[in-house]
Each structure stands twice: as structure tokens, then as C-alpha cells.
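OP here, attaching both records as promised.
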Amino acid sequence: MRAKAGIFIIISLLFLIGTVAAAGPFTITITSSKTYLTAGYTDNQAVINVNVKNSTTNVNVSGAAVTFSVADPSLGTYQNTGSVLTDLGGNANNTFISTTKSGITNISVTATYLNATSTQTLLNGIKVDHDNAHTATFDYPSESAVGTNITFNISFADRWGNPIDQIINPGKLHTINLHVTGPNPYDCIFVGYGPDILGKQLDIHGNVSVKVQLTSGAGPNVVTLDSFEDIPITTNYITAVSTEPFSIKQVFTPDSPAEIPADGTTQFTILYSLFDKFGNPANQQWVWVNTSIPGEEQQFKTDNVGQIAITYGPRSTIGVINITATAVANNTVTISHSVEFTSTAATTMVVTANPETMASRDVNPSITSGVTATVTDVMGNPVENESVTFSLGTVGYPGGPYNVTSSPSLSSYGTITTDQNGDAMVQFIPGSFNTNTNAVNYSATATGNCTVTATWVSSVTGNSTSKNILVTWKNYPYLSVTTSVNPSTVALNDTVDVTVAFRGDGWALQPSPLDVVLVMDRSGSMDDSMTGHTKLYYAKAAATTFVAQMNQSRDRIGLVSYAGYTSGTGTSIDITPTSTYTSVNTKINNLNANGATETREALKQSVDLLKAYPNSNPKAIQSLILMTDGNFNWKGSPIAMGQARDSSYTGYSTNNIETDDFLWYSGLGCSVGSTSCQATSQNMSIYAKNNNIRIYTIGFAANVNDFDPQAIAAMQVMANATGGFYSYAPDGATLSQIYTKIAGDLKNDAGVNTSMLADFQNVNVTGVSVPGAQVYDYVYNNTASTKITWQDGVSNVTNQSAQWAANHQLNFNIGTIKVGQTWQATFRLKVKQSGIIDLFGSNSLVTFNNGTSTLTLPHTYLTVVPSLNATGFQLQQIDVTSSCPAQIPNSAIIPLTWNVTYTGGPTDISEVVSYIDTSGAHVPFYYGGYHVNGNSTITRSAQFDMRTVPPGTYSIQVSTSTADNTASTSPSCGNYTYSTKGVTFIRLN
């Protein structure tokens, strides 16, 4: 700050520094010609006057030598660096010259006269203020979210770098004017002020800090500083960028309806537009786009105008697909749309029957087979509204003649129109046979068959096509079999998974009749207490539970109870096999406990009982269920351990297990006195097995140690040898569970020995027999092919590559399938032939019932197209980048080049180049356009002639877009300044 010339300020003495005390010989007064100096080379000198008086007489001292010093020499120096003598008035003068640095420092002078010396310091005697403001340093983020507040800082300095502070000269205030403008809706302000700040005072350190609230519209916000001292008008740009997505829009082409043909070529075009909460395009935002088909999800990023342009498809299979787009940054922003791929013209028909082999109506009066004609296009997609009629061929009775009671028929003989699945269906009603075994030509294995013919008339060409399928009906057992292939339409050289499943729930696999004899221990120990009741109490309850699970219309139950030794307690046949279960339960409930344990005798009489009362059905299953609470003793071992004794022998144990002697039965092999009878029918397990009787054994005691290990071993031997099982029951509840388990095991025994040959030596491809080696390759996969799930639920994978290599066949030994059980195998094939393939070769066969019954696998069709274009999303994108050239000094022409990179199909590209002034307005000055055939990168150019615009500061931006509304905008280039200062204009009239 410049001080006024000619004004002197007398500064009172503050304190003395030097060898003389405060009452030294001299009184020194220091004055300056200026209050403030200015850093730099203008107004930077001040005369420093020193007056020296005798401190005693107060007389001016003449001829005293005065030296001058400054505490901070960086602020300036004295013109005279030596000593200056005082004049007659006691005054000495020196000139202080400041440098380019601003600041405050102390002045010190020392007066010496006649060996007397005094020193005086003037605190803050030199004050060098800054020069005019010359530079402004701005500190602010180049971009921030729309509608947010950002801190905008300015630091001012003179040309020498000194801050424009108010520390040196607090009386001089510095104020500036600021303005902020932005894009529509023009709502940017300085927080607490408005769009303008007038007379904003710099703080004590020469800084200004304000808050700028950016516009809610995306784009450049311009903060302008009016000219200030030596600083010209200055503009600064802060880009308001869109925030996280708040909404989304979509445009599908085609739409209303959103459908295209599944021809492997046609695609949907989708344009997604994302917006923030202020409605600005949400650019550079990731979006998940997925469909209802697993694995098709993909992520895309919005371009500079908040858009994503993609294509979906093509597909060769029909179907309705839901497409959903969800913003990654805000998953509540989501939108969905359903599109449909429709079939093309119908070209092919195939016919299937489910089942192809079925029961005759005498076996199952309600059974039918669904005969389906499926009409498809060239891609294998179903075609609806095609006309199909069905008719029956000649009926045959292989192996006949049979006693036929009804002929087969169809549920409809008129024209049937295919549905949306391309299917036209009728029900085939099989014939029936006489069930009277005495009737002429009665047969227990009667079979009938005939062809069903489907005739399709094309709605496009009017041509007709006929296909036949052979259906068979039988009156004897068959398995339920299903086949499937996934996927049903594939491209050449793709893989498919083939599944064949058998289930024991068909009409033929009903449980066999059961003949069961309950063999119950009623020895004296059964009267022992067990948790509040006797063991016999719980045994009766468990036995009646078993009875309740039998089928009274089919199954028979007998009861044999036993004790032994004590008179009247031996084995008793309480009831012969009967279907009157109330009588059985009465006999069970009447049992009483007393005596020893003659298990051997009870089993012998139980086997004889079943022999004496055979079931009229030869398939009936016969079994004994032995329940005992202790060791066999009276009459010895049931498995013939020890020495054979005749009926006169009475030396058996009555308390402990008897393994030394056993009662010998006539006619069952071995001889009295022998000790080697266990391999004969004297062993009750062998006796039962030879008579096709299964034995289940139950040990019932609170403690398993109540049984001798040899007793347990004997029970296990008898059960395992005959197909039953042994169980231990520590309480009544467990005993009931075991009886229930036995009931289930008996009822499930309705399986057949099954094997399957999947033959692929010759395969039908679009009506032509082709060697399987040309059609498929078997593919082993250690987790998926060949994966077999067995009847017990256990799964494993086996490698059938060697079988395939040998003869293009796959063999399966399935075993016995029981009621309710399922066996399933899945194997993988690579398909090498295009067309409609009847999956299994004609020699594929299932055999069961020990090889006496056979079954062919159902016709299963696979469509293989030569080239199945990948379904999915393809990004359609345009991107523009500008070269941003530097401005040539004194030039008003800005040459601009930009690169346009496009990904997608053929389209027209439009471009606009705009200049942006300090108000933020975008003014186009160049328009262009051209056509591209697909993916491309093209360099374009234009020039901005600033002579066509008013003087000022400008930036440039390039925008491009496609005919499909995909768009991109380059970052702005600039600032470019145009001025007319120093330019002479000639006015022409």
C-alpha cells in the first residue's frame, strides 16, 4: 500500500538495546517518511530519520555516528550501509529501499559519540505491503454430482507472489465480484447469496471461500470472477454430473406386439435410457440385463447420454422370454419386457404314442394312450393351427388267436387343429380280452397291436403328409418307462443329455398277495415289566399294528404262539392263515405268558402251517415273523446246533440257551445222534427257504445283553438265509416300528429283473436310417455321463466309452425294481447330424421278468439345426473422442479432429459440433453425417472460426448419434480465448 508523502510520524521511544541502559547518554527518536512501502519497484523507498539528544541536558547531539539495521534484510536494504553523522540539529537520515517481498520487520539504530553508545529499536518499523492483485489461484473439483454443494476457493497474489492479505495494512479492504451460471434449469447459486456475489471481501490472508450449489441439470457450471485490480475476467468450469440412477426407460423394436420369427437371423433392438433423480441422463452407469433363460445375463455401461443400445437374438427356438434391466448402483431401478420368438412355416410332422405299450382294457378299464402328432417348422419349433386327422390301421393279434372282447378305437376321428405346442392329440383306447380262464382261446399273455395313422395337410402348400405309429396292448405285467432329451433343439456338434427312467408304479407292478404267520414268544419272561407294562403287552400292541397294515382283500395272516416245557404251554397254532383280521387280533389279545422257550418247535410248526394252507395265487409271498424275548432252550437250536435227539429226549435246558441238543424231525434229513445237521432241513432257515418262506426275526428285550450272542447269531442266520432281516427292539415303540418296516418290505416285493440295451447302431434321421457313428459321439463326464440313480437312491457315474466304441450300444443291468422305486440313467451324446432324429435305434430293448418280457423304448425326437445362432445380447455402441488442439497464439481458427468408434449393424451416423460460451449455452456451428455398414472407426474434422462470435472464452464439444438413437458426446475442449484488443477496424460505408 502506498504511504502519503511528506507525512512523518514521531514514534515514541519504546526501549533501548545495547551497552547503555534505559537511562543511557542519548535519547534516540526514529521516524519514517512513509507508513507503508509497496513490494516491487514502485513506491518502495522511505526516508528513516534519527534524532539524537543528550539524555541529561536534552540538547541535540551533533557529530554522533549513527548506524542503521533491519531485522529482516529480505524485505529491503539501506541506501547508506555505513554510519551517518548527525547534523547540528542532532538528525541523521538514511533511505530504506524495499524488495519484492511483503512483510513487517523491526528497525534498529545505534548512536556513538565520545565513546558513549546507545541503541534504539523500533518494533514493526518497516511495513512492506503487497502490490496489486495479479494472479488468482482457484481450488475446486472439476466435477461433482448434480444438485450438490461444492467448495470453491480462490487465493490471490501480486505479481511477486505475495498474498493479497490485510495483515500489513488492515485498513485497506479488497473486494471481488463472482457470478455462477449453468445449464437448464439454471438453478446453480452461491449458497447464502444467489447467482451473484458482489463486493465479497477477501479474508485476512487474501483468500475467498464460497459454496457453490451446482445445477440439477447435468453440464458445465461456470463460475466467473470479474476483473480485479490487474486480474482480467476469469471463468472456471465445474461439470455437474448425473448421480446414481433413479429411473429407467426402454424402447423395443419391434414392439406392439414384441415378436419376431425364430428363424436364426432376426433380432430385437433394445434401447435403455437411465436418468438420475433430476431427470438427467445417468451416464457411465452399469446395468445388468438378463432374461428368463439362465446364463444369458450380461452387464453394460451407459454412454455419455445415459443410454445402452443392444440387440437380442436371434433364436432358432420359439418361446416367450422376459428381459429385465436393473441398475447396478440402485437395484430398485429396474424394468422388464416380454418378447416372443414365433415359429416360421410348418415343414415337418412326427408322431408319438405315450405309452406305446399298455395294459389291455380288461386289466385296466380306464387306460388309454395319448397319440400326438407334432407339427414343426424347419428349426423344429411347434406350429399351431395346422390340421391333422387320425385313423386306425388293421388290428393284429401276434401269438393268437385270443378271446377278444372289444376292439381298439380312437377318441376322435375328425380333424384336429394343432395347439400352441404344435400338438394335435387323440386318445387311443386299447382292446380287451376275456378273463375267464375256461373260455375258448383264453390266454394269460394275450397281445394286440395296430397302427395309428396321422395325416397332416399343410396350411401353406396344401400338401398332405402321413405318419404311422404302432401301439400294443397286453394283459400281463409291464414296467413304466419314460425317456427325455435335453435340450430338444440344438445346433450341430452340440451335446444333449438323454434320460431313461423306470418306475415301479405302473398298472402291472402291484404287490403280490402275502401269507404271513406271526410267531410270538409267550414264555414266562414275557410277563416281565417294561416301562409300566409287561413285554407281552407291548408285543400284542405291535402285532396288531402289523395286522392293520395288511390288505384284507388280498393278504392272509396266521398266528403261532409258543412257550414250552411247562404242561400246556407248548407251541400253539392259534389261527390258520385267514383274511378275517378281527379274529387274528382277538387271538393275539388272548395270549398269556408262562413256560420256557421252544423257538425251534414254533418255527417247525409255522413252516408246516403255511405248507398245509397254500395260497391259490402262485405269486403269493410267504413269510414268518418271529418275535422272542430270550434265548431258545427247550427242544434246542432252531438251526440244528449240537446233537440230534428223538422225541423221547427231555434233557434240554429250561433256563439257559440250549446249543448241545436239539429235537430231530423225521423227513428233514440227517439222523438221530448226528452232530452235523446244520446243512440239512433240520436247520429251520434251510427248511423255510426250500419252501419259499421268508423269515424275519426280532429280539425284544430291554437290554441286548439279555440275549446270548449265539441266540442273536442264529436269528441273523435264519433271516439272512431266507431274504428277511433281523432287528433288535429295546422297547415297545421300537418293536412297533420294526413290524411296520417288515410290512413295507413285504408289500414292496413286486419287482422284476430288468436290463436295458440302448442301441445306436442305426438311427432314423428325418426318415432315413443313418449309421449311429455318423450321428452321435458318446461323451463321458465324471459328474454327469453316464450318471445312474439306483433303486435305493444312491447315484454314481460310470464310463461307457468302451461299450460305445465296441458297437455303439450302451448296456444297463438294472436289477429288481420294486413298487415305488425309480431307476434312472442319464448319458450325454454329441450330435453330428442335422435333422429330426428319432433318438434311439430300433433295436433298443428292455427285458424283465427274468427275460420273459420285453419293452421297446418310446420314440423320442431331437431337432438338430445346422447353425443355431447364439442367443444373447450384442452391444450397439458409439463413442467419440476429440483431439483438443492447443490454440495457436494470435489465431482465431481452432482446427478440430475427432474419432468415432461404432459397434453394431448398418446404420446412419449424425454429428454436431458446438461451441460453449461462459454462460454454458451450447451453440452448434457444424453438422455432419454418414453411413456405416457395421463396426468402424472413422476420423472426422471441422474448424471453429472465433471471428464469427463475440470476444470471450469458449470450449468445443462433439456429439454423435445413430439412427437407432445411440449417442455419445466427447469431453469438451478449451478454453479458447478470442479478443479484439489491439485490432484496428476500418469502417466501410
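Record two, same layout:
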Amino acid sequence: MNRVEKTSAAENLKILEPLSLWKWLTMLALLLGFPFLILIDHMVSSFRNSRDQKVSHFELEVEKITGRVFLEQEARIQIQEILEEYIKLCEGHLCNQYIIYRAGFTSSPIPFLSPEGFRQSLLYADVKKLRLYEKRLKQIIPGIKLLKWDSSYKLLSDSDVLLPKFVYLKMLESIFSRLKRCRSGNEADRRYMDQLPLVQKFYNDDPNLVEFIKFGRLGRFTNSNGLVQFLFWNDYYMSINAGDDISVAGFLAAIDEDSLPLTFGIGRFSLRKSHEWKQDGYALGWVDCAGKEKDSLPFPFSRLDEKRWARWIADQPNGVYEKDGLLISLRRVNSRLVVVAAHSLSEVDRALERQIFITYATFFLILSVSALLILLNRRNDGIALSIKWQILSLFILVMALPTVAVMHFGRELLKDRRQFYENEVFKKLDRIRKDIEENKDYVFRYMEILGDEFTTAMLKFYRPENKQPFFGKGLQKTIEHYIDKARVKHLYLFNAAGREVLKTEFKDGERRGLLPLVSSLAKLKLRLSGKLVQDGYSGAVSLMDLMLEETGGSKLADIQAILKTKKSSAFELKFTNRKTYFFVGEFSPSCRPGEVFIMVFIIKDRKFDQLYLELMLQKLQQEEKTGSKVQLFYGENAFSYNRYFIPSTVKNPFFEYSCDSPDSVALGKMTEPTRYAGTSIKDSCVLQNGRKFLLYSFSPAGIESFSALLLYDYAEITNRLESLQVLLVVISLVTLLIVYVLVKIAARSIVEPIQMLHEAVERVRVGNYRLRLQLPGEDELVALSHAVNSMSQGLDEREKMTKYLSKSAVEAVKSGDGVALGGRKVSASILFSDIRSFTTISESHDAETVVKLLNEYFACMNVVIEQHDGDIDKFIGDAIMAQFIARDITGFSSRDMALKAVKCALAMMKALAEFNADREKKGLFPIMIGVGINSGEVIAGNIGSPGRMDHTVIGDVVNVASRLEGMSKIGKFTHVIISRSTLDLITDRIKCRQLEETAVKGKTSAVEMYEVLECND
């Protein structure tokens, strides 16, 4: 720093030039500006990256929405869901009709109306409500026509007309025959097939027509006129009489595809599903490029600018676009129709702008507050803050940067860690998916183990003496147990000749179709093991080969290899285009070693898939690492299934999945793309109980009937993130601790020494001149402490010297008068005291005793004199000269000071009496003193030479006071002698007696003297 020298009247001082304000502000800007700008730049970049990540997430969502619409906008899917809801409504009201019709009312709650009339009114009201449902259905599905029947399978008169009429009547006859066959339980009755040839011919021999007649699932068929139709039928049932089901009514629905608008599927899907996305800010719409259908562009598209948007959308290929603050996903359904999903980015952009504004505002606020503190605390062009606060503020500002950086980077690290952990979890879930898809052999092995257990259990019921070899109480329960455990569809037991010994009873015509194949497999197994017994019933192997070839092209050689390799084996075959899983096992009773039995049981594709998933579920639960964190749920892909998830063996499930609970419905809706289109979904969800999970929905390869759902408990990720967050907090606290330690170190090395110097100067200022500082090191502060020590030592020496000076001399030095010779007149009262016979005392005692006596005597008298505002001018041997000077600054007049001098003399006599009493107690001799007081003007000042001077008072008043002290021996009472001038000042305050006028030494005339007797105080 620059130092300049300025001349003062006292001496030359070196003055530190103050640092200008612009330099302070420039230093602050350089100190904080660049680091903060670098940090702000990184933070803004981070904010923009966060914005880009959100936009990427929105891109995936809008693409997912358009993809789902593209997959599920088929009219068939939407019609199926609408008809299912219609069926639920109709079932309830038709059941009400049946109950009302069967109910016998004995009275009517309505006056003037008979019970029968009341029942008819109820029936009419219910029928009217049903008609309203039908009317609403026809509004929702344009062109739908209904053929309705009652409980006796008679066509109702209000049914719609379908042409050609005879074709639909034949179709209804087939459906009614099928329903009656099911009601009678006669599985062999196949008369429902009699009417099919004509119907099939009308529908171009579509092979799916048979399945439609049998099960009524919604089908899409093209008739001979080239018209595409959707057909659906359903028969309502009601349970009465302890569970017996009876038909109440039914309907056949026919919908011409051409009667449906082009946007029917998208419109219905949007109406039914868009609420799932609307709450998250997503919008779904469409544009007809040909302009024949009305466009639908909901918010956030502007209504005022809808035509421009429609033209722009029509010209764009499939993809995701960011335009005018919107994120738009386009997917063309066909040459005319474009599906549009959009999400507004305005809130994201506003959030980014807010974050950037807050960041810059915070930076500006820090600089402003710092500059304001400098401005408000400037004194004498400097900073009026203590050094401690200056250093503390400096370190806080400097260390705030790494602290903020740690917090910011920690937040970014948490985001990255969260994404990393979620990706790791989804990798684990992918591995679980692969395990599920690649463990079909594990299920075959389970079937074989279960088959062996089954055969062992069957041997307990072997009775060779009976015509029926397997017989006994509990046989049926054992069979049912293993059938349920393995989800067996059919069970057969053959003897060595291939004859059927035991079979399960199922009301399913498919069993008879399977019997030749199963019998052939049993004979093949016996033949390969060399145990086939020829009894004329075994049949030709060529028939067996033919049956195997009809199962979908399976090779006989492969089946032979499987059956020949193992005693019990499980394998897969196709039958009627459906996967069928067989177990073929061979066993012999121990009591009849030569007798052989072949057990065959069959699991159909749906049941096998369910068994497969159950085994994978159990395997997953048994794993220590993932068993408690991951749970597997599964549900049917069939659209008509009422529940999303099938009850299974899940232990302590995360949610109530076996019924339509809120969690089940919410998760089911999230996984609908998997059920309907096989689309895998990776997402997160929060259940009603507040628990968070990662969700992975997929359709396992090789499993056609079910979709699977994996839920991973998010608690583990949360715990990891919380641990990381705690670590970041600890790091931040450690950073702050470092700041504190650095401040303490700085305080110890800078602030504390300065505080010690300040305290030392303050103590020196109040008179503690013996203070010494000891600081470690050799820096400037240590040098300053040495200077303070030198100053203190010098002041201590001067303080000691003041003890040799009078109070007036000291005050003269302080006031600056003690450096020049000369004096001035002042009014004063001068007191002289002397020890009587001191010469005799000195001669009769040694010097130490005399000096000790004087010291004790002077100490006693000094206290008395100071108590009365007197000032000892000097000690003259055994005499004391004290002055009582009247000064304006003290507020005491000449009269006051004269009175103080007299009181002081009387007090000295009293103190002397106590002093002598104390000496007598010690066996020492007493002493006597005399006091003389005179008042008047004296000369007070410095007398001597420039090299040695004395500050005292001189004049005739002083001389007379000395002579009066000498005359005090003639006093008889107090020995305190005053002059006439003193008496005139205080005559009303004292009592005295006049002594004989006597000429004193140095005076030509006699002096009036008075002995003070007492003071009237």
C-alpha cells in the first residue's frame, strides 16, 4: 500500500492512504465474480440438461401414447370393451326382471294398484331402462344390429332385421343348439354343427366361425358380398337353486365395418383412456389428411390456429417434433388418418427460466449485500467492521462456492445415482424375464417329478384281485389333488395292452378327440420298452403315426426318442392348432413285477402357462437376494376376463391383486398395452399405501395366454439414495467445518493477536504498565507486540518517576505546561508540618529506624492529605510541604481550599494520635508534630534550568507558612497555627485562639497567629 507523510503541529505522522470505494468493489467483484460465473454457468447448463431430460421423458411418453393408440385403436378391441360393459349392465337388469317376474306380491305399496299391476309396472320400468341402454349402445356403435332372445331361446319381436335373414337364423339355430347341449351336459351331441355349412359358405368358409359359434368371442368376418362384419353373441345366466345356472336371455350383435366412422377406434379409445394421461398434461387427437372427417386437436393446441396445425401435421412423416412450445408425436394409422399426442413444454420452459432467474438473482444479491455492507460500514474512508468479521466474511464468501458446488453436484449425483439404480433394477428384472422365458425344461422336469409322485400314490390303491385294478377309498381325492397341483386337463391310465383302465370325467368333447392320440402314445411307450401285450386291440402303428403327424407336424422319431430315453417323460405337441403338454409315465406294482401300467395326463396350453408362471413365481420367491424385493403377478390376455390378475401363490403380496381393488385396477390399466399388444412397459408406480415400486410388464415369449407383471420394491433404492444423501450432507458439513477451522486458524494467527494487542493497549490506557505480551513467531504482529511491550515498559518507568513528583507537577506535564520554565499567580493555602525534636531522634536512633519511622509517618500523612484534596509539594527532611490550590476546573474557591487545609491539619493530628498509639503497642517511642498554614497568592510553575526543573510554588505566603509551622510549639491544644489571612477566609467555620504576635524570621513586622481549636463542620 502507498504511504504518504503529512506534517502535523506535534510531529511528523505516517498516515495510511484510504482505499477508494471503486477499489473495494473491484476487489469484491474479482474475488466473487469469476468463481460464481463459472459455477452459475455450470448450474445453468445443469438446468438445461434437466430440462432436456424432462423433454426426453415427455418424448417417450407421447411416443408411447401414439404407439398404444396405433395398437389398440382397432374397432374390434373398442367394440369388445363396449359390449362387455353393455353385458354387465344388461345382466343386472335382466336378473331383476327374472326376480320380479318370479316374485309373488301379496300387496301393492301403491294405492289403487293390484299386486299384479305393481309387478307389471316394475317389469315395464326395467324393460324401459334396458331399452335406454340399447339406444345408447346404438349411438356409441353406429350400425350395430341386435338379435335378442329370451330364456326359452325365442327371438324377441323388437330385434333388428339382418339380411339375408335365413343365414342369421341358421346361425342362431347353431348357437341355440350349442347352448342347449351345454345345459343338458350331453357332450356327444353335435347337432349344433348341422347348420354350420350354410353359414360358413356365406362367410367364405372362414375357419374361425366354428370357434365363434362355440364361444361367442368377437370375430371379424367377410361375407360373400365382400362386406366386413363384426359378430358377437352372449347368453346371460343367473344362479338359482343352490348354484344351478339358468339362461335368462341373450343377444347376437352384428356390426358392419363400413358403417363405423374412420375415427371410431381412436375416438372411443381416446374417450375411454385419455383421462389416464390428461392429469399428466398429455393430449390425444387426430387429423384426417383428406379432410372428410372432423379433426380433433385438443388443448394445448390453439383453437384459433387449428387449421394451420392440421395442415402442418398432414404434411409431416411419423416422428416426434418440438414446435411452438409443444412436443408432438405423430403416427399414421393409414393413408388418411394421423394420430397426434402432444404435451405442452411451457411449464418446463417457465421452470427453467425461474431456475436461471433465481440463480442470477442469488448471485446479484450476494454481490449487492456484500457491496452494501461495505458502503454502510465505511468510516473515515475505511471498513468499520472488526477484523474478525472481515476475515470471517471473506472465508464464508470464498468457501460458500465449494459448499454450493458440493450441494449442487450432490443433487446431480443423486439424480444420476437414482437413474443408475433404476437401470440396474430393470436389468435384474430383464434377467428374471429371461429366466421365465427359458425354463420350459424346468416345468417338464416338474411334471415328471410330479408324475412319479402321482404314480407312487396310485400304487397304494392297486387291487389286482378286482376287475378294476385301481380301487379304494380316497382314490378320487388323490387324483383330484394331483390334477389340481399339476393343472391337468385329462388323465388316463392304460394297461400293458393299451386298454384304458382309469380315466377322469370331464364335460368336454375334446377328450374323445384326444383319446386316439393318447392311446397311441401309450402303445408307443409300451412298444419302445418291449412290454406291449398283443391282445387284438393294440391297433396298427400306422394309425399312431398318422395321429402324431396330425398334431402339427411333430415327427414320430422325436417322440420315440423322448419316450425311449426316460421312464417318465414330458413333452409338447400341437393339437387342433393349440399347444398341448403330455406326461407319459411307466410304472409296475411291486406285488406284480410283470404287470405294467402307463399313465398319461395332459395339460392344455393355458393351464400349462399358468403352471409355468406359478413355478417361476415360487422359484423367484425362494431366491434370497430378490425373493423379498420382487414379486411376480400375471393375468390373462383375454379381453373378456373380468380381473386383471389371477390369484396365485404370492406370499405377502404388495397389493390386493385377487380382486378389483384400486391398486389392481390402476396397475391393470398401466399394463393394458402388454395384455392387448404385447408391448413391454417399464415404469414406476405408487400404491394406495404410499409404497413406491418399479414396474415391468411384459408378455413372456412362448406364453400366449398370460402377461406377467414384476414389481420391485423401491425401498432399497430409497435407502441407498438416503445413505448417499447423508454422505453428501456430511460432506457439506465437513466443508463448513473446514471453513470454521480455517476461520479459527485465521483468528488465531491474525484476529486473536490483534485482539490481544487491543486489550493490551486498553490496559495500558487505564494504567496497567506492567503488562507484557508474548506472541509466537516473527511476523509484523509479533514486532508490534514488542513495540507495545517497549511502550508499556517506558510508561511503567515514567509512572514510577511520577511518585517522585507532586500531583501538580504531573498535571502540568499532562497539560503540556511542564516543558517550559516560568510560572503564574494562583490563590493557595500552604501547609507545613514538622516532627518535633527530630534531630534528637536522629541522634539517638540508627539510620534504619529513622528512615522506617519517616516512611511510616509520611505514608500515614500522605493518605490524610490526599483525602482532603491536598497535594504534597515535597518532603523536606522530616517536614511536609502541602499545597491547596484553588482551581476553576475543580470548582473549589480559595475559601474552600483554606478550609480543606485546616481540616487536613486537624485530621493529621488525629491520625498522628492513632499512629503513636500503634507505636506504643509495639514498644516504640511516639512523635509530635506541628502544623503551620498560610493563605494568599503564590507563584506556581517550573523553576530551574531546561535540563533540570522543579514544579513548585514560591512566594511570601510559602515562607510565612514555614515560619508559622516553626511557631506551632507555642500552641497548647492542637498545635495547628494559621495566619490572619487564612482566618479571614474561614472565620465563621472554625474556633481558634489568638497567640501573641511575634516577629518571625524574614519578616520585619510581627505576624498575627492563631491556634485552631476545632472546626465547626
